[in-house]
Description:
There is one protein chain. This protein is mainly α. It has 2 helices and no strands.
Amino acid sequence: MAQQLALSVDFGSGFTQAWSKIAKVIPQFIAFLVILAIGWIVAKAIAGVLDRVLRRLGSERAGMARYLSGSKYDMTGIICKIVYYAIRPCSRTSQQIAVSRVTA
């Protein structure tokens, strides 16, 4: 007589593993969003302060105003955007460090 093989699938452990993985991702995602917001705020604040300082100092006297006269940009705006986009990668690096510490 052939022996019958009993097969069973444990769906409960699959759901448990899925929820545990989701529970591990949620703190990482929250840390990512917090650091992203802080980096954005810091970059905007530094660019805003730099904009006010450069406008007070009169950066347009540097001679670039005549080259940019037909453009919608001015020299101060260009410098502030360069600084803003230079600071943004620093916040992304700190995001990667924070997320790796959360996972450890």
